[in-house]
Structures are given as C-alpha cells and as structure tokens.
Amino acid sequence: MAINLEELQVELIGDDERGFDFLLPDALKPLAKLELPQRGVLSAYLDITPEQVATGKVRLKLKNMARSWQESITDKQERRAFDEELARIEEYLTYELKEPGRSLVIFSSKPANLWRAYRVPVPIRTRVVWDERPYLRPLLTVMDEYERYGVVLVSREETRFFLFYMGEIAEYSFSLHDYVPNRHKQGGWSQARFQRHVDDHALHHFRSSAEIAARLAERDNWQRVVLMGTEENVARVKEYLPKAIQERVAGEIPASINDNINTIRDKVMKLEQEIERQTEARRVEAVITAAEKGQNGVLGYADVLLAVQEGRVDLLVVPEGLSHPGWECTQCGGLVADILAEPPKACPYCGGTLKEVEDVVDLAMQKVLDTGGTIEVLRGPTRDTFLKEGIIGALLRY
Ligand SMILES: [Zn+2]
After folding, report:
1. Taking CA 50 as the corner, what is the angle to CA 46 and CA 56, rounded to the nearest 5 degrees?
2. Which has the closest alpha carbon to 201: 234, 242, 239, 236?
C-alpha cells in the first residue's frame, strides 16, 4: 500500500479556545523573510499572567517599554507610524485578549500588512522592538528547547494522529478507518476461517497505521513518539513501525479512541514533563561533575561567558527566569556580566568599547544557538539546586 500525504492534504488542526496557540517554527518562516525599507515593524514580547491582564498591568508594562522608543524616534512621520502600531497592540490587549497563556508575542506592521499574536505557554522576558523586520530571536530561542512529540492513538479499526509541541496539541486532519469484521457475527463461516479473516483485516489496519505514522514522523520531524490505546493494540502497531521510529517511542499510554483532544494533551504533557525532569537532572549532574573534575564543564558567569565568546558551548544550562545585567562589546560582541566591584574599562576579549545591556543571559543563549549549541532551561526541582551550585553552567565541545 502506498499512502500519499500530499494527496490526502493532511493538515494539523489545533483548538485555539484553550489558552495557547499551536505554533511550529515553520509558521515563522514567512516572518523571517519579511523586511521593510525603513523601520515599521513593532514586535512585543509580554511576560504575562491572567492577573496582570485583568488589572491592566500588561498595558502599563507595554507603555513603559514603548516610551524609550518614542523618545529615541526623532522623525515625525516615523513616530506617527510607531504610535499607530502601539495603539493597535493596546487595543488588542484591552478588547480582544481573553485567554492570555503565559507569554504573549505580537508582531504588528501596517505597511507590511502584518498582524500576529501568539499566546505561548512559557515565560519570555518582556521587551519591545521597533525595526525593519520582526524580532524573532527570543521566540526562536524558546522554541528550540522543545521537542516534537508525534502521537498515535490506535484502536482495532481506527487510528488518530496528533502532534504535541510546547505544551499544546493539534490533531492531524484525517484518521484511518479500516473495516474489521465483528468477532461475534460469524454468519455461515467456520470459526477458524472467520478468525483468519478478522486477523487479516486487523493486520492490514495496524500495518497501515504504522506506515502513516512513519511518514508523518519523517515529514513533520517527530523527535519522540507516543503510542496510545489498549496495551494489545499499541503492541501490534509498534511491531510494524520501522526500527528508527520504534527507537523514538517515549511512552505507551492507555487511552480510548474517543478520548477528546484535551484528555490526550494532558496525558502527553504528563509524560513530557517526566522526561524533561529526567533530562534536566542528568544534564545538571553532567555539568557539575565535569566542572568539579576540571574536565569539559564550567560554572559561573565568568567562565561560561568566556566559553560562549569562544564558541565552545555545546550545552548551556540556565535556570528559568535567570537574568543578569552587564555589558556587550560593540566590536566583537563579547559579553561581560556585572559581577565585578568596578565596571570593566574595555572588552576583556578584544579591548573594544563596551555598552550596557539589560541581560547578558538572554544574549548568551542566542549566541549559543547561533554556534549550534543546545540550551537547557531548568524548570523542575533541579532549578534551585543549580542556582546555589553555580547559577549558570555549560558543557564544552573541547
Ligand atoms: Zn570585544
């Protein structure tokens, strides 16, 4: 059997009534290409909680961030354009935003005919950027940390497929229905012959399910796979999965084929959080051990930022919410954290001029991603231990 996903026009269908938006990096590709001849795109990142939305603090935060831009824009026409975009975002916050999620990411540009508002389930530091293009870096940094979970929910005659990412789930727009004769209605057939007939149909169904799963996994880059259903059905579909996909199976969860999408999401989320906590604990231990033994691990701002500057960071470990002021070199981009008694006079790496920055952690994360490294943001119980041990840490490539 050959299954052509393009012919089936398989799409992902989320449910945006539930708080967060289902957002994949692909959706940002058109935004990455967008560029205006002059500044005209307003990007706003708002770290929000429902209370802040209800009391109007979000709008206040936005206004404060916008003020420094307004003061720096001297051209009258440009200032008017900025204020227009700002007003549009304020209107959205006041009248349209209902379920805010954890962070709100908005890109607004009238000349580019652009309006995007994403509710993201993780905290992102509040900031406002006015530029020729959308400011995507913080969003991409966050997204990079999450894995995609393909979910296969199987019964004897139906299979549903889902994609779970960043705390949200979407269902693929088709499900596989196969006719499997009922075991109890035998007609005039002999028991043995009827049983073979049933088995053939079931085998066909599990094999097709596995084939579709494998194709979706390849097309949509499923990094982990979750199989759901009865133990028996899960085992059968699993045996037909290609080896490479079998190895990505992160869990097998009991579920009914008619479970609603929220139930499925909550079950997968529980598994994801367990896996994430284990990964965190393992990585924290690796960094601390390597640092103690004087091997390829470093702890603390000075050593970590030096390694970042040298492009040697393979894995950066950062407790969630960590930020620290400091300086960035205008010449080489080197970062210095504000941990010294006296501010440095020049860049320690190249001697260039330094400018103050609000948060060196955020800049370090972006640099690590640019040099092909990975970031682990600690959210579980390891977070507090790590803050005591060394605040920030890294495993180095060499
Ligand atoms: Zn420098």
Report:
1. 70
2. 236
Strands 313-319 vs 158-165: parallel, antiparallel or unpaired: unpaired
Here the tokens at position 36 are: 């205006």
The CA 115 to ligand 1 mean position distance, Å, reads 37
From the list 376, 360, 370, the residue with the least C-alpha distance to 311 is: 370
Q: Give distance in angstroms: CA of 186 to centre of ligand 1.
A: 81
Among candidate residues 225, 259, 293, the one where a domain is terminated: 259
pLDDT confidence of 84, banded at 50, 70, 90?
very high
The answer on 283 and 392 residing in a single domain is yes
d(C-alpha 115, C-alpha 108), whole Å = 5
- With respect to residue 264, please indicate whether it lies within any of the assigned structural domains: no
Region at 294 (left for phi over 0; alpha for psi -120 to 50; beta for the rest): left
In this structure, the answer to whether residues 197 and 101 fall within a common structural domain is no
Are 77 and 50 contacting, i.e. CB atoms less than 8 angstroms apart? no
Asked which of 87, 122, 140 is the last residue of a domain, the reply is 140
Would the pTM count as exceeding 0.85? no
Distance 348 CA to ligand 1 centre (A): 7
Residue 43 alpha carbon to ligand 1 centre in Å: 28
Same domain for 34 and 126: yes
Give the CA distances from residue 394 to residues 66, 98, 364, in Å, rounded to whole numbers and listed in that order: 34, 39, 11
CA 346 to centroid of ligand 1, rounded, Å: 8
Residues 6 or more apart in contact with residue 68 via CB below 8 angstroms: none
**CA distance readout (Å), 357 to 96, 149, 323, 328:** 33, 36, 11, 6
- CB-CB contact of 354 with 333 (8 Å): no
**Per-residue model confidence as pLDDT tens digits over 160-191:** 999 999 888 889 987 788 766 665 555 666 77
25/227 Cα distance (integer angstroms): 24
Coil/strand/helix, residue 14: coil
CATH number of domain containing 327: 3.30.1330.30
